[in-house]
Design brief:
Layout (H helix, E strand, L loop, with lengths): L8 H11 L5 H43 L5 E5 L8 H9 L4 E16 L2 E10 L1 H4 L4 H8 L3 H4 L7 E5 H7 L6 E6 L10 H10 L3 E11 L4 H6 E5 H8 L6 E6 L5 H12 L3 E5 H4 L1 H39 L1 H9 L4 H32 L1 H12 L6 H4 L10 H27 L3 H4 L4
Parallel strand pairs: 3-7, 4-6
Antiparallel strand pairs: 1-8, 1-9, 2-3, 2-5, 2-8, 4-7, 5-6
Helix pairs in contact: 1-15, 2-13, 2-15, 2-18, 13-15, 13-18, 15-18
Amino acid sequence: MFAVASWPYEWQVGWRYLRAGRGARHNRFINFIAGFSMLGIALGVAALIVVLSVMNGFEKEVRDRMLDVIAHIELHDVGGGTLARGGALAAAARREPSVQGSAPFIQLQALVGTGETLRGALLRGIVPGEEARVTPLVGRLVAAHDPAVAALAPGSMAIVLGIELARTLGLKRGDALAVVLPPRRAGFAEGAAAAAATEAAALPRTFRFVLAGTFEAGHYEYDNAFAYVHAADAATLLGLPGPVALQLRLDDALAAPEVAARLARELGTEVIVRDWTQTNRTWFEAVHLQKRMLGLILVLIVAVAAFNLVSTLVMTVTDKRADIAILRTLGASPRSIMGIFFVQGAAAGFVGTALGVAIGLLVALNIGHIVPAVERVLGTKLLPASVYFISRMPSLPLASDIVPIALASLALAFVATLYPSWRASRVQPAVELRGE
């Protein structure tokens, strides 16, 4: 336990002013305001920690589920239209020490469904055995000998839908469905035959597929609008001889932008190199913007609570003017008087900040249990998967967030004490003691 008697007298008096007067009627209101200020700081700090922890957890959860379905880097050969140089591209990729695997693929947008019930979907043509090296979802399906993925063979015209997409369309394994592609672009032509060909080319193209099964990625966007077919079948849909892109898996997903930049310089302008942060740039930028704006709003709430200390200290200075005058006559300097009230305000800010950090961490670390309990009490779902991509509240407290929050709260509390402390140091002993 700290020995208060060994502290400098400015600290002792400031700490006494913070704790004293609980039984005195004329000090009760000041104590109430002081306690309310500390509580406001604590709640503001706790709210800031909880919100940023949830935002961090939300971003990590969605990012991990994205990277469960997509590769880290995609290479698109625009020079020849297909991966005619696929072997060279794969060899160049393997020279990167961080590349763990590669796989060819084709990606296209289409409508899928039966009759008049059609939904937009992103079709990815893959070679299952090779795809397993770059996307963990397919890797797990292949390792489990999932019959849906096993059915994806060249010419099978089999398709694997996301579970939400299949549920929306009312399809089950073995059902037939249509894949509708937009019409091919036709050039200028002359004559009746050319006109008929142009008219035929302007019609949407429909292909019959069979539902081989479903997959569940745990990410609503993929479960509701994603489908796998074999790469050979996807090439047939587009009238191409083979895959048109190559995807890579790295040992560190966060290094993807740096590796992609090196590959782009090495492979030249005929190859488009995109990493996963570029593919999902809009989503991540939106999350980062929301995090910054929410952080700013909550910091302002902490600032309002911290500056409540100004009114507390001003009332304390007014109440203690006679005590200040006596201290001045005993030899206390204006700087010491200022230090007394600075210590009082700083201690209130420190207690409020420490309490807020403790509450914030307690809630952030247990929010996975708190939210389901609140949902049961309210009888509603706070996180519908169709809106937030995930169905449970994630949380990831980071020291890189908590430390700046605590320092900012303390800094605001310290700044709030400057004016009242200065006012206290300007008290004139002769004037205050004239009527005593």
